[in-house]
Amino acid sequence: MLTPNMNYSHLKSSYLFYNIAQKTKAYLAEHPDKTLYRLGIGDVSLPLCDAVIKGLHKAADDQADASTFNGYMPECGAPFLRKAVADYYRAKGVELADDEVFISSGASDELGDILDIFDRSNRSLIIEPAYPAYVDANVMGGREIVHLPSSRENGFLPLPDENTDAELIYLCSPNNPTGAVFSAEQLKKWVDFANERNAVILFDAAYEAFIEDKSLPHSIFEIEGARTCAIEICSLSKTAGFTGTRLGYTVIPKELRRNGMSFNDMWIRNRTTKTNGVSYIIQRAALEVFTPEGQEQIHRNIDIYKNNARMIMQALDKVGIWYTGGQNAPYVWMRCPDGMGSWEFFDLLLNEVQVIGTPGEGFGKCGEGYFRFSSFGSPESTEEAARRLVELLKK
């Protein structure tokens, strides 16, 4: 008799965004004349930059001509794009071989698929509050999860100690949902811990392009010792607006080995077995992101989102609310006022000033009493939402 993967029965109901949608829908049904100001969205609102659009058009035209047509692409990524990503790292002082870069259809896909190359007996350490997919992917795989709590006291950036015990370590910096960013010194402690324990860090760098403090690392591979203990997963979704276009990349150094096995070789075998690669059109468009013109254009868009974050931060500063994130990340993570619960604060914002955010409880128990704002909305909507926040919280 066929048996399903019973680990799925252990998944918690994905109620966070469903509940937000239901509450929002009910409010609009009762108040059809009201405008909502959405600071909860994790999707981008600005279109793809001109360089990428031109790349898409050129690639589409290539497919119309037999001399430039491309069929199946290399499963691990087109050589031209793997080189461009490696060059991007080299420009930041991180030396990579081109074949240590793997092109993917996005960071979310890779964060789930990468677990294939680790035995199910390995425990996964996840810092809370956390991106929910980290937890769900491990539950689906039947892995034991070690939850490491973070808090305002440690700036939502906990460090390992003698009681920390896991083989896989998830680090996200800049962090979703808190916007907190690990310093080089803090990451060095995690790298040293992983090397001492023979553990592997899965480093989610999806928001690295938002870091403006030059003292903060953009990559785990800026840290000495990381090549023997880390895998880095990144995305063009928020960096270049590829949420609907889908492209990311994963870096696996050749020095990363355990029990005589190379994780780089294992991932080559995994990709060549389980995928047919990312389409030529998307990879050709992504190549434009790494040109000087593309970099200038995407950073113009990033600057707009960062200015949105500043408007939210300034609003919270005016009313004396504690928060983290914002300066080096697209998310602002605030403490709910007057000891309110995160869903209670959501209802207050919706009903009183028509502002939508994301309750921190949805990111784990450590998120209760906190609230996430996103800077990916339009400047006009963000400015009005910030004004309404000040008006409400001053009361």
Count the DSSP helices: 12
Give average pLDDT, whole number: 96
If you consult CATH, what is the topology of the largest domain? Answer: Aspartate Aminotransferase, domain 2
CATH architecture of the largest domain: 3-Layer(aba) Sandwich
Summed up, the domain count is: 2
Residue stretches low in confidence (pLDDT < 50, at least 5 long) are: none
Q: Please write the string of helix (H) and strand (E) elements.
A: HEHHEHEHEEHEEHEEEHHHEEHEEEH
Q: How many β strands by DSSP?
A: 15
Q: What structural keywords apply?
A:
single chain; seven-stranded mixed sheet; Aspartate Aminotransferase, domain 2; 395 residues; Aspartate Aminotransferase, domain 1
Task: Describe what this molecule looks like in 3D.
- The model has no long low-confidence stretch (mean pLDDT 96).
- The protein has 2 domains: 139 residues, Alpha-Beta Complex (Aspartate Aminotransferase, domain 1), CATH 3.90.1150.10; 241 residues, Aspartate Aminotransferase, domain 2, CATH 3.40.640.10.
- It is built from 12 helices and 15 strands.
- α6 links the parallel β5 and β6.
- α2 runs antiparallel to α9 and α10 runs parallel beside α12.
- A 7-stranded mixed beta sheet has the order 2-8-7-6-5-3-4, sandwiched between helices. The chain has a 4-stranded antiparallel beta sheet with strand order 11-12-15-14.
